[in-house]
Protein backbone atom coordinates (compact mmCIF):
# COMPACT_ATOMS: atom_id res chain seq x y z
CA UNK A 1 0.00 0.00 0.00
CA UNK A 2 1.46 3.42 -0.92
CA UNK A 3 2.68 5.55 1.97
CA UNK A 4 0.11 8.25 1.06
CA UNK A 5 -2.69 5.81 1.87
CA UNK A 6 -1.40 4.88 5.32
CA UNK A 7 0.24 8.06 6.69
CA UNK A 8 -1.94 9.37 9.49
CA UNK A 9 -1.23 11.47 12.54
CA UNK A 10 -0.11 9.33 15.47
CA UNK A 11 -1.98 9.79 18.74
CA UNK A 12 -0.22 12.23 21.08
CA UNK A 13 1.72 13.95 18.30
CA UNK A 14 1.81 17.26 16.52
CA UNK A 15 3.24 18.08 13.11
CA UNK A 16 6.63 19.78 12.76
CA UNK A 17 7.62 21.47 9.52
CA UNK A 18 10.78 22.98 8.12
CA UNK A 19 10.78 24.98 4.95
CA UNK A 20 13.84 26.63 3.56
CA UNK A 21 14.99 28.48 0.53
CA UNK A 22 17.80 30.62 -0.77
CA UNK A 23 16.90 34.15 -1.77
CA UNK A 24 17.99 35.25 -5.26
CA UNK A 25 19.33 38.47 -3.83
CA UNK A 26 20.74 39.75 -0.53
CA UNK A 27 18.25 40.59 2.22
CA UNK A 28 18.77 44.34 1.69
CA UNK A 29 18.28 44.20 -2.09
CA UNK A 30 15.17 46.11 -3.26
CA UNK A 31 14.07 43.12 -5.38
CA UNK A 32 13.25 41.11 -2.23
CA UNK A 33 11.94 43.92 -0.06
CA UNK A 34 8.28 42.92 -0.47
CA UNK A 35 9.28 39.53 0.94
CA UNK A 36 11.39 40.99 3.76
CA UNK A 37 8.76 43.57 4.67
CA UNK A 38 6.03 40.92 4.69
CA UNK A 39 7.71 38.42 7.01
CA UNK A 40 6.16 39.85 10.17
CA UNK A 41 2.73 39.86 8.53
CA UNK A 42 3.01 36.20 7.50
CA UNK A 43 4.54 35.07 10.80
CA UNK A 44 1.90 36.95 12.78
CA UNK A 45 -0.82 35.31 10.71
CA UNK A 46 0.72 31.92 11.47
CA UNK A 47 0.83 32.62 15.19
CA UNK A 48 -2.85 33.66 15.17
CA UNK A 49 -3.94 30.66 13.12
CA UNK A 50 -6.01 27.88 14.62
CA UNK A 51 -3.73 24.95 15.30
CA UNK A 52 -0.47 26.92 15.55
CA UNK A 53 1.67 25.60 18.40
CA UNK A 54 5.20 27.00 18.14
CA UNK A 55 7.73 28.70 15.84
CA UNK A 56 11.48 29.07 16.26
CA UNK A 57 12.40 32.53 17.54
CA UNK A 58 13.60 34.85 14.71
CA UNK A 59 16.95 35.56 16.40
CA UNK A 60 17.62 31.86 16.87
CA UNK A 61 16.56 31.21 13.27
CA UNK A 62 18.91 33.90 11.98
CA UNK A 63 21.79 32.32 13.89
CA UNK A 64 20.97 28.86 12.50
CA UNK A 65 20.78 30.22 8.95
CA UNK A 66 23.76 32.53 8.80
CA UNK A 67 26.31 31.71 11.53
CA UNK A 68 29.18 29.30 10.91
CA UNK A 69 28.09 27.36 14.01
CA UNK A 70 24.48 27.15 12.81
CA UNK A 71 22.97 24.02 11.28
CA UNK A 72 22.02 25.41 7.87
CA UNK A 73 25.33 26.09 6.16
CA UNK A 74 25.90 29.77 6.98
CA UNK A 75 24.28 31.02 3.80
CA UNK A 76 23.55 34.76 4.12
CA UNK A 77 20.57 34.41 1.74
CA UNK A 78 18.88 31.53 3.60
CA UNK A 79 15.23 32.12 4.51
CA UNK A 80 13.44 29.46 6.52
CA UNK A 81 10.88 28.62 9.16
CA UNK A 82 10.62 25.83 11.69
CA UNK A 83 7.24 25.44 13.33
CA UNK A 84 4.86 22.99 15.00
CA UNK A 85 1.15 22.62 14.26
CA UNK A 86 -1.65 20.61 15.84
CA UNK A 87 -2.42 18.79 12.60
CA UNK A 88 -1.87 18.59 8.87
CA UNK A 89 -5.25 20.21 8.26
CA UNK A 90 -4.37 23.23 10.41
CA UNK A 91 -1.00 23.74 8.72
CA UNK A 92 -2.53 23.21 5.30
CA UNK A 93 -5.21 25.81 5.99
CA UNK A 94 -2.58 28.38 7.01
CA UNK A 95 -0.36 27.68 3.99
CA UNK A 96 -3.05 27.75 1.32
CA UNK A 97 -5.90 29.92 2.74
CA UNK A 98 -4.20 32.90 4.38
CA UNK A 99 -1.83 35.72 3.46
CA UNK A 100 0.90 33.07 3.26
CA UNK A 101 -0.55 31.94 -0.10
CA UNK A 102 0.02 35.41 -1.61
CA UNK A 103 3.68 35.16 -0.64
CA UNK A 104 3.93 31.56 -1.85
CA UNK A 105 2.61 32.63 -5.24
CA UNK A 106 5.49 35.11 -5.56
CA UNK A 107 8.24 32.64 -4.58
CA UNK A 108 9.72 32.71 -8.08
CA UNK A 109 10.45 36.43 -7.73
CA UNK A 110 12.38 36.01 -4.50
CA UNK A 111 13.85 32.52 -4.30
CA UNK A 112 16.47 30.66 -6.27
CA UNK A 113 14.24 27.87 -7.51
CA UNK A 114 17.08 25.58 -8.60
CA UNK A 115 16.75 23.16 -5.71
CA UNK A 116 13.64 20.99 -5.84
CA UNK A 117 13.27 19.96 -2.20
CA UNK A 118 12.54 22.80 0.23
CA UNK A 119 10.11 21.35 2.73
CA UNK A 120 9.91 18.52 5.24
CA UNK A 121 7.34 17.47 7.83
CA UNK A 122 7.50 14.92 10.64
CA UNK A 123 5.60 13.97 13.78
CA UNK A 124 6.73 15.22 17.18
CA UNK A 125 5.35 14.32 20.59
CA UNK A 126 2.99 16.98 21.94
CA UNK A 127 5.08 19.57 23.78
CA UNK A 128 8.28 18.92 21.82
CA UNK A 129 10.00 21.89 20.15
CA UNK A 130 12.41 20.57 17.53
CA UNK A 131 15.92 21.92 17.24
CA UNK A 132 17.38 22.99 13.93
CA UNK A 133 19.81 20.05 14.12
CA UNK A 134 16.80 17.71 14.35
CA UNK A 135 14.99 19.55 11.54
CA UNK A 136 17.97 19.43 9.20
CA UNK A 137 18.48 15.72 9.93
CA UNK A 138 14.84 15.09 8.97
CA UNK A 139 15.20 17.26 5.87
CA UNK A 140 18.37 15.41 4.79
CA UNK A 141 16.70 12.06 5.45
CA UNK A 142 13.81 13.02 3.17
CA UNK A 143 16.24 14.31 0.57
CA UNK A 144 18.23 11.06 0.63
CA UNK A 145 15.58 8.40 1.18
CA UNK A 146 12.35 9.95 -0.05
CA UNK A 147 9.18 10.06 2.04
CA UNK A 148 9.01 7.73 5.04
CA UNK A 149 7.48 7.86 8.49
CA UNK A 150 10.67 9.72 9.51
CA UNK A 151 10.13 12.69 7.14
CA UNK A 152 7.62 13.44 4.39
CA UNK A 153 5.90 16.09 2.28
CA UNK A 154 2.33 17.04 1.38
CA UNK A 155 1.91 14.28 -1.16
CA UNK A 156 2.27 11.60 1.48
CA UNK A 157 -0.39 12.83 3.85
CA UNK A 158 -3.79 11.29 3.32
CA UNK A 159 -5.44 14.27 5.03
CA UNK A 160 -3.67 16.89 2.89
CA UNK A 161 -5.70 17.88 -0.16
CA UNK A 162 -5.40 21.66 -0.63
CA UNK A 163 -1.81 21.53 -1.93
CA UNK A 164 -3.02 19.62 -4.99
CA UNK A 165 -5.20 22.47 -6.19
CA UNK A 166 -3.59 25.55 -4.66
CA UNK A 167 0.16 24.98 -4.98
CA UNK A 168 0.18 25.86 -8.65
CA UNK A 169 -1.97 28.92 -8.44
Explain how this protein is built.
The chain has 169 residues and is an alpha+beta fold. 40% of the residues lie in helices and 17% in strands.
Please render the helix and strand layout as text:
Layout: H1 3-6, E1 13-22, H2 33-48, E2 52-55, H3 58-66, E3 78-85, H4 88-97, H5 99-104, H6 107-110, E4 119-125, H7 132-145, H8 162-166
Antiparallel strand pairs: 1-3, 1-4, 2-3
Quick tags:
alpha+beta, single chain, 8 helices, 40% helix, 169 residues, four-stranded antiparallel beta sheet
Tell me the quaternary state: single chain
Count of helical regions: 8
Spatial separation of the terminal alpha carbons: 30 Å
- Percent of residues in helical segments? 40-55%
Most strands sheet: 4 strands, antiparallel
Gross geometry:
globular
Can you write the helix and strand succession as a string?
A: HEHEHEHHHEHH
Radius of gyration equals 15 Å
> What is the spatial order of strands in the main beta sheet?
2-3-1-4
Low-confidence runs of at least 5 consecutive residues: 1-6, 162-169
Please state roughly what percent of the residues sit in beta strands, choosing from under 5%, 5-15%, 15-25%, 25-35%, 35-45% or over 45%: 15-25%
What is the number of E strands?
4
Given helix and strand content, the structural type is alpha+beta
Amino acid sequence: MPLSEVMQQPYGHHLAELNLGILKYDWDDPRVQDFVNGLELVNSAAKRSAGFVWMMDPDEMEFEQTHADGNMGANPRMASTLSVWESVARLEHFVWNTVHKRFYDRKGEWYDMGAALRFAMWWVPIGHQPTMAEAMARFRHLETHGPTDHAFGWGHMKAAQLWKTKACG
